[in-house]
Amino acid sequence: MQDQLLRNRFAEQLPTSVPSKRTHNNLQEKSKFYKPLPCTHFFGVLCLIVVVFTLVIIIEKQLPAGLKIANEANHPDSFIAERAYRVLRNLTKIGPRTAGSFENEVLAVNILKQEIEGIMKEANDHHVIEMDVQRASGAFNLEFLDGMTNVYQDMQNVVVKVGSRIASPHSLLINCHFDSVVDSPGASDDGASCAVMLEILRVLSKSNRILRHNVIFLFNGGEENFMPASHGFITQHRWAKEVRVFINLEACGAGGREVLFQAGPNHPWILETYSEEVPYPYASSLAQEIFQSGVIPGDTDYRIFRDFGNLSGLDFAWSSNGYVYHTKFDTIEQIPLGSLQRTGDNILALARGMAQGHYIADVDRYKQGNLVFFDFLGAFVVRWTMPIADMINIVSVIFSIYTIYENAKKVQYTDDIKEKQYLRKLLGCTLTALISWILSVFATVIIAALLTAFGRTMSWYARPLWAFFLYVIPTLLVCMATVLLHAKLFNSDLDVSPWAKFQIYYDAYQVIWTVVLFFGILLRIRSSFIAWTWTFFAALGNILKSKLYGRFRDSKWLLLHISVMGLPFVQCFYLMIGALYLFIPIMGRAGAGSHAEFLIAIMVSSLFSMLFSFVVPLVLLVRGVERIFSCLVGLFWISLALLILTPSGFPYSGEPGHLAPQRFMIAHTQRTFRDSTGAVANQSTGYWIADMDINSPHTVDRHVPDMQKANLVTTDCDEYLYCGLPYIVPVLTMIWKTHWLPGPPPTILTAVNMTVIKRENIPGGERVTLKVEGPTHIGVMVSPMEGVELTRWSLKTQYPLAGPKWKGRETYFIYYAYGLNPVPLVFHMDFKVPSDHKGPIMDLAVTSHYLFGKGKASPSLKHLVAQFPQWTAVTYWTATYDSWII
User: Fold this and answer.
1) % of the chain surpassing 90 pLDDT
2) Entry pTM
3) Does residue 272 have an active-site annotation?
4) pLDDT for residue 11 is more than 80
5) Which member of 105, 115, 199, 223 is catalytic?
6) Do both 643 and 665 map to the same domain?
7) Judging by beta carbons within 10 Å of its beta carbon (0-12, 13-18, 19+), is residue 758 exposed, middle or buried?
8) Closest CA to 809 of 835, 831, 825, 794
9) What share of the chain is helix, strand, coil (3-state, %, to 5)?
10) Is a pLDDT exceeding 70 seen at residue 4?
């Protein structure tokens, strides 16, 4: 009796007849096996997806109009982008500003001082402004890349503090760096940030608003030397102790929007202030987890303030157009006025919000907690604390399970499927969905292998649209084909309508995202908000479709499906496009051993297979599905043929408005190897070419004939410490594939000199005191012999930091740099030596790097570099490598 009542209740919800279509037979239409949607509907969905992709990309590139000085009267107390642009132009006119160079230590510092002094003269009397130029020396361990000990001498900082006449013991720190890498004008990295800070300082100092707390502006002159200047400030400057929170401004691209990619640790009020104050938000806890995972080869002063200052703060970076990052193309022309305006408006509003707020006065009180956060299309920030996130996620998991269970009960009366049978089929469909993702990745890997075999790799580098044709379309094809095949072969016993089959696969994808969300809760992953959006809206869609539609549905049902699942689709694509814009340029500097083609294939396929989760099941409802497959397959094959048979897929570009150069790093090198007696055992000279991407170095053979003589470095890595090559930083595990081109001796103006000052016995071992002299940038690599242990040294670090093993032995890398005046590196090392050990106790190598001035490049090096085509970006310098067995 109860079953009959339930059947009657569900029957009442069903339409009494199927909507008629003039083009189809009435008997066909009434059949429950008749697929209800014409293929034009699915093509419409695909066209809508392309439109969404286009609109999101357009939104992602939107910038505000830059304010001009002529209109300043109409915008009082506002950031004026044109003035910041003028400051940036003056700074970049200097050229590359490598730490230790006259350009960085004198010219850049003078420009900053002149700008600051001019601001101080025009400041409102309400404010007190102080300026200080600091020279700092010190050392610290840095667990980044392969690990190093950074030792620095006389690094410069220009520091400004602005506050009210009612002194506050609390300060906000805003940081940028004015030095640049070798050969780069450093417009975006990080001159633009310094120009933005100077304009913010001007606005704050001229304003009638009295600051509740101080704002310290740190213009540091040594970030590219792996952050020694910020370390010198936060550990030694007299104002450092009053800093309560910081804002760090960086770049890994040029122009575009600045992304908030690190926040905290803890102190959720910082992000709350950001969310409430900034007019143009762009932030995500996903970006933070990606960066802190180490998959992006970079680091910022954020780490220094966090680890050595025990501070919390925000880390911003321009991430668009990463092609010009750390190259000669990082010029002011790459930075739109709107980018400066956007960043200036945001940081000015944020600085005011923090300096005027009450949190800074008692930061420990508001310390606990972390936030889950993300912006929606740059319009506003969604954020909640971790306890609230846990509650939302748990409720969503329960909600999802409930809707799936309700579906399992409902199909008993709509399609005569028993509950257990439904759940069993649901499990099979869930596995099928997962298998479809795996197969799509496998298919794209095969495509990547084919492109590698044909020498057509990295076509997507200059033109990311190629990734759509090569990897997105096959991903969709494989996922749809897998679901269709499974439905035909393994669910053929189901005497149900296409709607019921669709519902099972829909629920299967919902199960996957629910499980992902569940494990995100357990593992405390803050980017689980992605799984939450899919889980919650899928469950919501289940409820709405169940209430509004019965067993048979029309095109209105499809509109509802698109409307409900469109929001997580748009948000996830918005996050994905930001990640791809970041990662694709990185592939041009990730090293030849990174297998970039396969990495991008796997990344794109994985992301889009998940993005299409609730698009793929629609194929079960479509008539004439073969037309869809024919069009997509045809589009893929045409694209592949164009790529292989024409030059349209050339990966690089030197066009001024569309720069995507291939990177080369060339060190004109002199190598000297000594035996245990100190005598020279071997010596060679030539050009060391660090392969920055998978196509290096032979893409330029036609333009640079000498490149055909370059040999892959192999056996030297087994024989010599750090391959007997002048690595300026410890990146051997990432940049391990390099080439050596024999050449004439370089011009060495200041030869490196290593002296063993003293060797003495200590309890249980031996102490060795060294003196190393040379140019501004020196590397010291140490590897104790087997059985010998380096226990401590006199450098100002807690302990010697070990790097990658060599011959099964520990290695240690010391990065040493100084300012204008030469200062030798003098230190001792203590070794624990077994009593029965005979002979040498360590291998020692010293590298020297001539990054600027007359000693940077010999005539032969300049001649070699001049041959490179316009679509390349060559970073070059002179270096030496000297080794000893001690």
Assistant:
1) 84
2) 0.92
3) no
4) no
5) 223
6) no
7) exposed
8) 831
9) 45, 20, 30
10) no
